[in-house]
């Protein structure tokens, strides 16, 4: 296969892994998240650093604290060097927080980057090491909304319409 075409296909495969990760987090599909990592991978989320089993437990404990999450992917820089690749994925993560004592739901919005080392093993690209960076964040109170609650709503599990085929 032409070297340029091989590089393009590798870059696309790596980008798809990251997109699956975001979907897995937002839908709380932790087996989908797990499928993005090699079994011996390390994830560094700042307050959490550990292996994939520990990261899944961390996500299982912390993701339900949000009413919803939405990880929007922006720039993706991927550099492939044989069976190792380095990637920097930019994004904006929206986290809806339940109403607190003030009775107001809030949005925690963070501009984020994932600094990754990917490895291709047995022909499959997965994350070997991931470091999450928060470049900025803010919390905004949620005011009026236009769409009535429950209308057009997704779910944070495999019953979400995105899983229908």
Summarize the structure.
This protein has 165 residues and is α+β, with helices and mostly antiparallel strands. The protein has helices spanning 3-26, 30-34, 52-62, and strands spanning 37-44, 49-51, 68-81, 84-97, 106-121, 124-141. A 6-stranded mixed sheet has the order 2-1-6-5-4-3.
List keywords for this structure.
165 residues; alpha+beta; six-stranded mixed β-sheet; 6 strands; elongated
How large is the share of residues in beta strands? 35-45%
What does the radius of gyration come to? 17 Å
The low-confidence parts are none
The protein's oligomeric status is single chain
> What's the mean pLDDT score?
96
Shape: elongated
- Summing up helix and strand content along with how strands pair, one would put the structural category as alpha+beta
* Proportion in helices: 10-25%
Distance between the termini: 32 Å
What is the H/E string?
HHEEHEEEE
Number of strands: 6
Descriptive overview:
It is a single chain. With 165 residues, the protein is α+β, with helices and mostly antiparallel strands. The protein is built from 3 helices and 6 strands, in the order H-H-E-E-H-E-E-E-E. The chain has helices at 3-26, 30-34, 52-62; strands at residues 37-44, 49-51, 68-81, 84-97, 106-121, 124-141. A 6-stranded mixed β-sheet has the order 2-1-6-5-4-3. The longest helix is centred in the N-terminal third of the chain and has 24 residues, at 3-26. The model has no long low-confidence stretch (mean pLDDT 96).
């Amino acid at each position: 296969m032409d070297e340029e075409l091989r590089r393009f296909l590798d870059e696309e495969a790596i980008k798809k892994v990251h997109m699956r990760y975001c979907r897995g987090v937002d839908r709380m599909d932790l087996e989908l998240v797990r499928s993005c990592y090699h079994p011996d991978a390390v994830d560094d989320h700042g307050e959490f650093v550990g292996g994939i089993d520990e990261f899944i437990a961390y996500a299982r404990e912390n993701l339900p604290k949000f009413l919803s999450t939405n990880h929007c992917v922006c720039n993706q820089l991927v550099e492939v060097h044989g069976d190792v690749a380095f990637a920097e994925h930019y994004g904006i993560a929206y986290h809806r927080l339940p109403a607190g004592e003030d009775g107001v739901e809030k949005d925690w919005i963070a501009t984020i980057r994932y600094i990754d080392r990917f490895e291709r093993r047995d022909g499959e690209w997965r994350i070997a090491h991931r470091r999450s960076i928060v470049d900025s964040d803010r919390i905004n109170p949620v005011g009026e909304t236009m769409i009535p609650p429950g209308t057009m709503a997704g779910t944070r599990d495999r019953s979400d319409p995105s899983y229908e085929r």
